[in-house]
Structures are given as structure tokens and as C-alpha cells.
Design goal:
Number of helices: 1
Helix content: under 10%
Radius of gyration: 35 Å
Strand order of the largest sheet: 13-14-15-16-17-18
Shape: rod-shaped
Number of strands: 35
Low-confidence stretches: 354-369, 374-380, 384-399, 405-447
Length: 447
């Protein structure tokens, strides 16, 4: 009996060394969780109970438990590497079979899907609609769309303008004729880039002419031509809109003449300039030709125009058109949204990744130690939807970083999720685990 008690101690010590050795062997394994050997004593007993002089029968291994703790975040330089700070897991799918991992080292396969490092499982998250809004509720494979972003025609231009109230009015009496090439016929010129339906850039010029104490005329040309492409000279001289201000310098109205009809069409009164009927074209050697592109009605907002005793100036104009864009970069923000950055400036959400939390009832499931498989030992995963903050969820680390968790004995590290740039979106979501942490999610491209 004494010999067996001694052997049980050697066996237990051997198992303890096995566990420690495994921890040390995985010191560089991303997302690895260290294990701890847990022992219990063995005592003798009979059907009549144990006596007061009973000697124990040694020791045995009761359990090998994984230690879920927060790790450090290390910079890897890979934009798809992410780290979860807090509890939670990344959700992976292998042909519908879900698994959960803290290892945030991801890459894309030949089809653009975000996968784990060996390409055997796809990262799960939320997709987005055509407007970049995250579609919460159903997890999907995260995929980075590398196609070009189609162009968008300009339909709205806005800015803040001040017109100098002390500027000298320009007489409209004959022989006055507006001439965009003669600076004596206008007070100030503003230029704004606009785009047609094919993504071609054009220059919209607005010429401000002070005609009276509280009135200004506005001539609008695109590429130096009238909206229909004709040259801005008689008999096609441009027709101005008229801005009227009150005595305090605030805009009262903008009056835009209607087309010449019989009977006459009443002018349009509003705070905006409506540019209808623009025909995009190009000018080559002084000859204008339509380029085949279409256009939308361009609304030029003048609501923020004032007439004060200050220099005539305009803030940087904002317009909603852009040319064809190519992806230049990917980023993931702290909320798990994957953004694609495009060469034409707009940023669009592509996808969104959210970690999940798991309720673990009896320890990790079978499989890789850093990748838990779903089975009866794991409770129902709790999914955090985009835009909600759960007390159990912390935050994602920045893209290009992985999270490593040092172990007291081995110095080993662990890793979690992070995020990307771009202009398209997808969302990834977490699951709960009583013994582990939580985290937010990823992002994909939304176009």
C-alpha cells in the first residue's frame, strides 16, 4: 500500500510536469490558454465508514482546467489581426460547424473571405446593406469585396458664404454684359468640382455680381459653358439667379427664372439654386461635345449665405459626388466595423465582426486548445448586436495587433480580435463563457 501511495505521488508529479511542459511549448501560440493541473487526495473507506486511524491512499489528478485571463496586445503589422480585450470569442464556421477562438490572426483566401490562419474556417459577422447599414441578427461569412466603388453623380452642393456688404455694386445698365472672362463684370468667383454619372469631374463656376444694396446676381456655368453645353454668349447669354438679403445681412430668398415659355413661367423662390438639365460634356480645341454621361439635378444650398461687412469668402464646399474608387486600405474600428478606404475618398463599411460569449458548463470542448468546438458542454452562445453595449463586453484592440496573455509560470500569451480600414462593412459578434472574457467585433467592407 505504501508503495502505491508513493507511485500516485510520482504519477501526479508527472502529470503536473506534462501540463507545465505543454504551457511552455505553446508560449508563442496565438490565442493559447494555459492549463492548470488540479489534484485531490484519495482516502480509504469501508461500507461502515472511515475510522479515526484511516491513512490516505495518495493523490490523483482531479482536473486539467484552462485559465482564461486577459492578455497583452502586441503589434503585428497585419491589418486583419485583431485582439479581444475583455471576454468573448471570435466565431468561426467550417461548412456550418461553428467553433470559437481567441486567436485573432486572420487572412483572406482567394475568394476574399476572412479565414483563420490555416484557412480551414471562415470568420463570422454581420453583413451590410447597399447603404452600409449593418444587418444585425444573422451571422454570415465575412468577405472583403475588392471590386471598384461605382461613381456617384453630384446632386447636392453646400457651403457657408459671406458676401461683403461694402462691395461696390456693378451697374446693370447698358452696355453691361456679363462675361466670365472679364473680371470687371463680376464681384467674386467660386469654383466647385462636381461629377457626372460616369464619374467624370467637372468644374462648376459661380459668379457673384453685386447689383444693389441688398441684392446679388449669381451666374452658374459648368466647364465654362451653360448647362446645355452652349457658349455663354449672345444669343445664349446665361440667365442669373437673384439673391435678396434683409437689413441685417441674412438671406431672404433666391429667385431663379424659369424657362422661357408662353405664357411666362414664374420664377422659383427658395433658399437653393436648382440646376436642371445639365448635359455633361468635354471641350476639345474650343469645341464642346457631350460625353454620353447623364446627370442628376444639382441642388446648390445657399441657406448659409450672409451679407456682412467682412471679406467675401466661402468655406470649403461639400458635395456628394465622386469618381470610381479603388480600395487603398482596410481598417477595423473599436466597435468591430470593417472599413474599406477608397481612392475617391469615401469610406464605406464593409462588414462587422462581433465576438460571442459562451456559457461553459463543464470545461472546454474537444478540438484545438485555442479553438473551442460547439457541443453539449457549451451553453447557448450569447450574441451582442451592433450598436449595443453589454456590461460583459469590453473592446476590440486596433487592427494589426494580437492579444497575448502571459501565464504566471510560462510567460505565454493569448490573443483576441481587432479591425480594418476601407469603405464597406460587415459585423462580427461574440459569445459568452463563464470562465472567459468578452469582446466586441470585426469589420468588413460594405459597398
Amino acid at each position: 500500500m505504501s508503495f502505491n501511495i508513493g507511485l500516485s505521488g510520482l504519477y501526479a508529479a508527472n502529470k503536473h510536469l506534462d501540463v507545465t511542459g505543454n504551457n511552455i511549448a505553446n508560449v508563442a501560440t496565438t490565442g493559447f490558454k494555459s492549463s492548470r493541473a488540479e489534484f485531490e487526495d484519495v482516502y480509504s473507506a469501508t461500507r461502515l465508514g472511515s475510522g479515526s486511524k484511516t491513512v490516505g491512499n495518495g493523490v490523483r489528478l482531479a482536473n486539467v482546467s484552462q485559465q482564461f485571463g486577459q492578455g497583452d496586445v502586441n503589434n503585428t503589422g497585419n491589418v486583419l489581426d485583431m485582439g479581444i480585450q475583455g471576454s468573448g470569442f471570435f466565431v468561426l464556421s467550417n461548412d456550418g460547424s461553428l467553433s470559437y477562438t481567441r486567436a485573432g490572426t486572420f487572412k483572406t483566401d482567394k475568394d476574399g473571405f476572412v479565414t483563420n490562419s490555416d484557412g480551414t474556417a471562415r470568420l463570422q459577422g454581420y453583413g451590410v446593406d447597399a447603404n452600409g447599414n449593418i444587418l444585425n441578427g444573422i451571422l454570415t461569412d465575412l468577405r472583403i469585396d475588392t471590386s471598384n466603388l461605382p461613381p456617384q453623380a453630384t446632386s447636392l452642393v453646400s457651403s457657408t458664404i459671406n458676401l461683403n456688404s461694402t462691395a461696390t455694386p456693378i451697374s446693370q445698365a447698358a452696355p453691361y454684359v456679363f462675361d466670365p472672362t472679364d473680371t470687371a463684370t463680376f464681384t467674386k468667383q467660386f469654383t466647385t468640382p462636381v461629377y457626372d454619372t460616369q464619374g467624370n469631374q467637372h468644374s462648376m463656376d459661380q459668379y457673384m455680381v453685386k447689383t444693389g444694396a441688398n441684392t446679388w446676381d449669381v451666374y452658374t456655368l459648368i466647364d465654362g459653358r451653360n448647362l446645355d453645353g452652349s457658349a455663354p454668349v449672345a444669343p445664349n447669354a446665361p440667365v442669373p439667379s437673384t439673391m435678396t438679403f434683409d437689413s441685417s445681412g441674412k438671406l431672404v430668398q433666391v429667385s431663379t427664372p424659369g424657362p422661357v415659355t408662353v405664357p411666362p413661367t414664374a420664377p422659383t423662390i427658395s433658399n437653393d439654386l436648382e440646376l436642371d438639365g445639365w448635359v455633361p460634356g468635354t471641350v476639345t480645341n474650343g469645341v464642346w461635345t457631350a460625353n454620353g454621361a447623364g446627370s442628376s439635378t444639382i441642388t446648390v444650398s445657399m441657406a448659409n449665405t450672409t451679407q456682412f461687412n467682412a471679406d467675401t469668402a466661402r468655406s470649403i464646399p461639400a458635395q456628394n459626388g465622386y469618381a470610381t474608387g479603388q480600395i487603398t486600405n482596410l481598417t477595423i474600428d473599436g466597435s468591430g466595423v470593417l472599413l474599406a478606404n477608397f481612392s475617391n475618398n469615401p469610406d464605406q463599411a464593409d462588414r462587422s465582426a462581433r465576438p460571442r460569449q459562451l456559457h461553459q458548463r463543464a470545461g472546454p470542448a474537444a478540438g484545438r486548445r485555442h479553438q473551442l468546438e460547439r457541443n453539449l458542454r457549451l451553453g447557448h452562445p450569447g450574441l451582442r448586436c451592433s450598436g449595443n453595449r453589454n456590461p460583459g463586453f469590453d473592446r476590440l484592440q486596433l487592427p494589426g495587433r494580437v492579444q497575448r496573455q502571459p501565464d504566471q509560470r510560462t510567460g505565454r500569451a493569448d490573443q483576441g480580435p481587432e479591425q480594418l480600414p476601407g469603405e464597406r462593412q460587415d459585423h462580427l459578434h461574440p459569445k459568452h463563457h463563464h470562465a472567459d472574457h468578452h469582446s466586441d467585433g470585426l469589420i468588413s467592407k460594405v459597398v
